[in-house]
Amino acid sequence: MESSAGPPAAKKHGQTSLLDSGEDFEVLCDEDIYDDLPPLEDAGGGNSKKTEDAEKKRVEDPEPSGNIDEWLDVLGNDQLKKKVLEAGKGRDSRPHKGQVVKIHLKTHLMDGTLAQELCDLAFTLGDGDVIQALDLTVQLMEIGEKALIQTDAKYAYGVRGSLDPDIPPNAELSLEVELLEATDAPDLELLPPSEKIALAVQKRERGNVHYQRGDYAFAVNSYGVALQITDSCSKVDISPEEENELLDVKVKCLNNMAASQLKLDHYDAALKSCVSALEHQPENIKALFRMGKVLALQAEYTEAIQTLRKALKLEPSNKKHSCKGKCTTLVHINIRAKTPLLTDAC
Predict the structure, then answer these.
(1) Interval 192-205: pLDDT, tens
(2) Within 10 A of 77 (CB to CB), how many other CB atoms are there?
(3) Residue 262 in contact with residue 291, Cβ under 8 Å?
(4) Distance CA 145, CA 177 (A)
(5) Which of 182, 178, 229, 179 is nearest to 203 (CA)?
(6) Segment 67-114, tens digit of pLDDT
């Protein structure tokens, strides 16, 4: 969750700059993330790194799964439990992170209502493609095993719930899972360009879902996975059009990653993401706007104003901006007060 503290104090400059001009600076609309994501408002933040590390350690060194019908407290907090209904093919058949697993899933509310059934749900274990409850427990299952999983909303759909599947806010869930198979992930170097693009887009869109839910740390992880795909070498022929499409996905991931890093107050990381995006597309408005925002929050006001003016020059009309009137995010830099004021208006 973003810190409530105010922006850092302005740095002193030895020369007269736009900061001393006494003007107010206002710059363009910003939807702040691609594909109709919400404006950058605090949506609750992701899990803290300390909590994630503790949960990671717990899952990587779990207690013995025990006999059938015995509950395993996966994280030791009584909020995520697993019970074997039918044994699988043995401990050696357990999948590991990075593998693509296929499961049969039934999602029930705690009152028994069936919310969703998926017969062949495939996802990469550990990539954040699914809710945490599945990512954390499927790696403890054996091929052919059927298990019952009970999870707190924290590891499912959280305080916001979900429209698809239809899950109310703060809902505890009961999941029936059968692990059907686990296979190694495809070799990215041998993947046809069209499939590589589709896979990168899939990971980016999952990052967008995390962002919408306010799970910014998980969003960063998904965008990072997508970037690994776009940056991977290729041993198969790729056309110039496909190279451009892959580059476009990469820049979108960098922009979205910067938005998530901003929400986490990771300003240096966000700035690095913006710089990387601009290396590929020097006139990318979103990267320029977000870079200006980072610089303003770091009290680098002269550079911030120069960057934002460049963005405004490239796209002077808010009405023509890609948000299509759905949302307008204005960044005001009060030059007299030397402090940035970020306001969202729909």
Answers:
(1) 999 999 999 999 99
(2) 14
(3) no
(4) 8
(5) 229
(6) 677 999 999 999 999 999 999 999 999 999 999 999 999 999 999 999
| Distance separating alpha carbons of residues 291 and 274, to the nearest angstrom | 6
Query: Which pLDDT tens digit goes with each residue over 139-162?
Result: 999 999 999 999 999 999 999 999
Rg (CA), the chain: 23
94 forms beta bridges with none
The pTM is what? 0.75
- Tokens, residue 268: 């240096």
* Spatial contact of 331 and 305, defined as CB atoms under 8 Å apart: no
CA distance 158 to 133: 11
